Protein 1
Amino acid sequence: MDFNQELRNNLTTASQLSNTFPDIKINNRIEEILEKYPISIPQYYLSLIDKNNISDPIRRMSVPSFSEMDLDGSFDTSGENDNTVLKGLQHKYKQTALILSTHKCAMYCRYCFRKRMVGATSDEIAINLDEIFDYIREHKEISNVLVSGGDSFLLDTDTIEKYLKNLTAIEHIDYIRFGTKIPIVLPDRIINDNRLLDLLKEYCSKKQIYISTQFNHSNEITHQSIKAIKLLQQAGLVIKNQTVLLKGVNDNPEVLGMLLKNLTKIGIVPYYIFQCRPVSGVKNQFQVPLLKGYEIVEKAKNIQNGNGKCMRFAMSNTKGKVEIIGKGLKQNEMIFKFHQAKNPENQGRIFSRILSENDCWVDD
Ligand code: SF4
């Protein structure tokens, strides 16, 4: 089945929600949430949820809750607006260009850090691709491009080809990354599109292509998602995983540890565990305090072999990508390091903070 046809079968309305989950009743508040933050769950992803378990991790990631209307937090936690140089193009770090290629996703994650736009508005996305490619051509310091969104693999195959054709032709680009959860939420989009796979293979011989994906729980690792991942790997792509640490989903050393083990088993390198951002409607629902999060990540790391230990526990704030290194000598002291800094003077800098048990973020 064509993936657009498959998307038409997604769960998208309050009545479908209440028909699927016996505990959810349609009311004005549900309608209000869906109007602001749409729901979209592919039938495949829906089939992974235990409908009788309100704590099911996949349900928690895909089904809305009333907490989404909690406005505590911010809608731009890492200064994306300040880093935007052209519509749809961000240039925060010297070497990296980030393109917001679409505002759509096959599944709208309830914890999304781009909730302000994803599924809601196309105001921030790349329209004039030629202008964007010109900018990247002129900025020779850019060595890699991340095509993100929304979900970049929800673009049609012709548009993906346009990205590949233009970006692989720029000499100073070392590699291209696509940010996508499609292998996890709609694997058939990859499995059934031989043309996409042929294109990826062809362009991978010109420049290395990476996939940044986001498995958050082992229940997402299925026969279908493994098949999609294997096809991408056979086309020559390198798949790396960024997990978001999420309360009620993977904030448990065994759950997180099993996820990392299961990822390395299928040839995916886990490279970041990200602290969930203090986004409005997400913050109080999904964030895990930093002190607790650090313990969980360390314990999960303890049950890994080499590749499973490669990941860093990090947060992306307005100043850069900050690694949460470990505890200091003082009570509740946490040591941080700028893994990537917006201000080059901060690159590699180490600093510490005394945290309270409930602190979930640092950005000063
Ligand atoms: S796939 Fe990514 S961009 Fe889309 S809703 Fe999920 S986290 Fe947000």
Protein 2
Amino acid sequence: METTLWRIRPHTVPVWALACARCGASWLESTGRFRVNANGRRHDVWLIYRCPGCGARRKQPVHRRVRADAAEVPLDAYRRDDPVLAESVAFALAPGVPVAYAVERPPLPESGPLRVRIVQPRFCAVRWDRFLAAELGWSRRRVQAAWRARTLCVEPACRASAPVRDGQCFSVLELRCRPSPSPPRSG
Ligand SMILES: [Zn+2]
């Protein structure tokens, strides 16, 4: 069976799940900016977050007291607020925080089998059952039933509540929905 690539792209970066000390908003968003302080040869680096409610700012440590010549510390990139680095740091600071995403993929075939490999350079922390329900247009119950019946398989195997990871594949034996009588609606 041919394998199709589906690319999961985040719309944004993970938030910092920390309540704002000023207004009580329940999370802070990255500004994409760093703060770098030099103390002799040692440097502190923070990523700056902002409250979406009141604009209060708060720093989250990225490096503490690192030497300027340490290979893993791209000080120049921090100083110029390199956007790719800011994105990468925001993901590293909040592993497992769900992120809104889009899926770039070809249209689903009308019927027949499907095998897909996931490409997800940034971990978006979406559950498999929720992801498949949204992308296949199935109910969550149908996804879970197919999962149990193994007409829908994920490799390497995991639980339906586990997050989708880069490089995993899934296959569906038959995409077409069997017509089922819809329940009568009242009102
Ligand atoms: Zn606030």
Protein 3
Amino acid sequence: MNDKTNKPAYFSLHDIHSYYGESYIVQGVSFNVHEGEILALLGRNGAGKTSTLRSIAQIGDPLVTQGECWLDHQALHDMESFEAARAGVALVPEDRRIIQGLTVQENLELAQIAPPHGWSIERIYDLFPRLGERKNQEGTTLSGGEQQMLAIGRALARDIKLLLLDEPYEGLAPVIVQEIERTLRQIKELGITTIIVEQNAVAALKLADRAVILDTGLVVFDGTAQEVLDNEALREEYLAI
Ligand SMILES: Nc1ncnc2c1ncn2[C@@H]1O[C@H](COP(=O)(O)OP(=O)(O)O)[C@@H](O)[C@H]1O
Ligand SMILES: [Mg+2]
């Protein structure tokens, strides 16, 4: 935030409330993310992290969201999910959603079927050489780590402004986590703004510039990633680490 010009943050959530039917899940969440920054969105299971990501990506049905969500001067809250995607939001969901029956290459080509186009497939293979080596293999037969790479690659195949990662390290061996961490650092160097939700909070905090911690749908911490790493009481209370 540049206070002198009152320029809004690149990305901001303002007083987001969301519901699954009668269940009130996200209870007035606000935070900003600056351009090119990685924000770790943390909190225990059921804290509302996935619901917050879905609210940002405007994925309703059955989630109903109120509040404002801005990305680079665009009002995401007035959009449908496909319009938010076109405006530059890419959600890589926890289950990765690799399309069955399609090869690695076809999964990437499908992501590029509609503009705005992002990275070329060759460039995605440069970032993830394992995908290039397996380009003719069916996507759903890849290892968990390779499927995560494909899911991230598919996001980059579109021209994105905000990358939302929901538990990208889940179920992956430490050596694969390190490989994905390396690529996320490279993606950051290219200036892509990222929100990462992760149960492996230490790994997420090492990668992130800033952190927001949710507890039962409320923001209980908003500060630098280093502050969380340094604050044992905070980690014990909300992250159980
Ligand atoms: N489709 C759904 N229908 C009803 N309740 C849901 C649904 N998805 C999630 N919830 C509930 O919303 C709460 C927050 O879930 P979620 O956002 O997935 O948390 P987190 O990602 O932090 O673990 C949980 O209590 C969960 O049971
Ligand atoms: Mg979740």
Protein 4
Amino acid sequence: MEIKLKYDTPKEWANQVLENLDEFLQDHADAERKVSTMCMSIVAKYPDRSKIIAELTQTAVEELLHFKQVYELMQKRGLTLNGKFNQDTYLKGILPHVRTSRDGRFLDRLIIASIAEMRGVERFKLVGEAAEEEDIKKFYTNLYQQEKAHVDLFLKMATHYFSEEEIKERLEELLIIEGEVTSKLPWRPAIH
Ligand SMILES: [Fe+2]
Ligand SMILES: [Fe+2]
């Protein structure tokens, strides 16, 4: 299933990131930690969805590994985690649209996870392309490749429980919402 974002982040966005790279790394480390937690919270809330528990757990491990890698990069640059958590204005804009029924909520969360991964893919790629420092360029180019696999993964999980038609229809609606939310957010040195 293909995901085409409705709003393309302008290239110039990456310049602002590179000018505030330390701040970006703080946010990025948090984002990786949070997506790992999100995977395991789906496991906690939907323990009966046994077809996807192994994959969710594996994805949580991979995201935690990304956290470890970002943290190592921070350490190399002499940075420590500052414990300041930016308000997640991105998710705050999207989550009110999540349906409240058990199944609706389940599907929406998986779709939003895919879209958020896709947004990450788009932006890691931009950072990788714009970076001049070799280790930063390598890191983000590599990460972009890895996150690409996660986009499909969450959608595939959904196909165990919902028809392709239903997924596609809801995907389109949530893509429109995500595009609107993202286009209105002020630029920050943050992945979302
Ligand atoms: Fe990740
Ligand atoms: Fe990911």
